[in-house]
Design brief:
The structure holds 2 protein chains of 2 kinds.
Chain A (H helix, E strand, L loop, with lengths): L1 H22 L1 E6 L2 E6 L3 H8 L1 H32 L8 H11 L2 H11 L6 H8 L13 H29 L3 H9 L4 H12 L1 H16 L3 H6 L11 H11 L3 H26 L1 H10 L5 H5 L1
Antiparallel strand pairs in A: 1-2
Helix pairs in contact in A: 1-13, 2-13, 3-7, 3-10, 4-7, 7-10, 8-9, 10-13, 12-13
Chain B lengths: L2 H26 L3 H4 L14 H7 L5 H32 L5 H11 L4 H15 L5 H25 L4 H8 L4 H12 L1 H17 L2 H6 L7 H11 L4 H21 L1 H13 L2
Helix pairs in contact in B: 1-13, 3-13, 4-7, 4-10, 4-12, 7-10, 8-9, 12-13
The chains are: A mainly alpha, B mainly alpha.
Amino acid sequence: MAPALLVLLGVLAYPIADALILSFSDVRFAAGGIQRDLIGTANYERLLADPTFALALRNSLYFTLVEVVAVTLLGLAVALLLNTPSGRKAIFPVILLIPWALAPVANAVLWKWIYNANHGILNAIGLQLGLIDQKVVWLGDPWMALNMILIADAWKAIPFISLLLLAGLQNIPSHLYRAARVDGASAWGRFRHVTLPGLRVPLLVAIVLQSIWALKVFDLIYVLTKGGPRDGSVVLNFLAWRVTFNFLDVGYGAAIANVLFVLMFVLAIGYVRVLDPERQRRRRAALPAADPAEVTA
Amino acid sequence: MGRWTTRFGLAVFVVLALGPIAWGVVTSLMPTKALTRSPPDLALSNLTLSNYVEVLTTRGNLVDALIDSAIVATLTASMSLALGSAAAYALARLRVPGANRILLAVLAIQMFPGIVIAIPLFLVYSQLRIVDTYPALAITYLSFTLPVVIWILKGFFEAIPPQLERAAAVDGASAFQTFRMVILPISLPALFAAGIFAFIEAWNEFFFAIILTRVQIKTVPMAIAEFSGQYQTLYGQMLAAAVLASIPVVVLAIVFRRFILQGFVEGAVKG
């Protein structure tokens, strides 16, 4: 067990600690070596004044919020569909696995083609259906580009969430539904009082995981827009990469990365707390053991 | 929900889920000339494998990229299994205090943005002069494959009845011998599933790949990204490259779907 821990410590713990130190440093590549000088909080002060950072932060928050809501709602819809008698065929989960397995870069290339202004199929369909009068340059406007990236990412993300929620749905004991029906609950009532509470844990897991993944988007931006146009699709992750590896401003890049890290750390703590084994055990112990419907039968 | 609403919903779902992919595959089988005509010429007589041939031979160096990716992914998967199985067994059997919490914490940590660990790792690798080597990349990938491999295997090991190990102990086997000769052979399905998972993750990975390589190594995602930038008007070939890159992992996912879907079930119940 020790070797595995050593590797993880080396590859995770050490870099995270070092990244913190780097963010308080000014790093230069000089004469085939690396020069590091501690400069206190200067990098972070720069962050606060940097309009590109503010833009990246806004974009990241918007992107994450919208994607989580969209993916969770649509994922739930798909899961509900697959939980019906017609939807229970074995082929449907397999259909979901295909977008899931694609490399994010392959997905990016696919959507680059779909969004192509001249020959892309989105324009073709839009024109055919009369939804647009002329070809749209989908990635040409900063705001629209960000949203098209969102759509491409959501498309790939929904399968995982659907499968997770589907497993959660199938885990809800059917006698709860029967009991609700006996009590005269409508379809909506059953959904509100049986389905949703039963999905509480999977939904929370889905929300936290999707938030973390939304903040990590990179491949799509790299392939589709490289952050453009006019930095419209720059998010924190991409900005940190650009600052570090394009501008070689390693200390500043580390500072941006750490801000992102803090955001995700908060989310990760949420994840751990939702799934805390101790808490789960306490919750399960508190649930009523007997089935009320059977007692009255 | 009415029967027909459900059927309609399912149909919409299938179209939206597979439509883009189907379109991508069709595009890869059409010559770019036909695709750029206005309106695009989608006659079935145009179907051709020329894009694939071009991408594999003359233009994309895709064959080299496929080999590089195969090496890295296999290296990552084997290292993950070697290290992860031992760790998982220890966590499952050798009563480490707070094992579940540790595991959860490690799983949570690996969700952190790659950029945070990429920068320091790049600096260290630069100084050790191991940037652009297969092991450097594989070790970096361990940061996100090890936790999940351990998670999968631990669950499996916990379910093995302890009688087997007791019988081996009675016969005089040490803990390690028990592990090697009793536990591992019966764990092949789980080992396979975990290894496949690590392989897929390593194969699809892009971010660390572009940061930690220079000239020697180019993985498939890098090749595709480069292709989509350099030859972006060669639509047919661009899509052919993407399809080629995806075939291995999609096939793996479909073949091992039962394990993957089982993993989702457990994720929903226990997280």
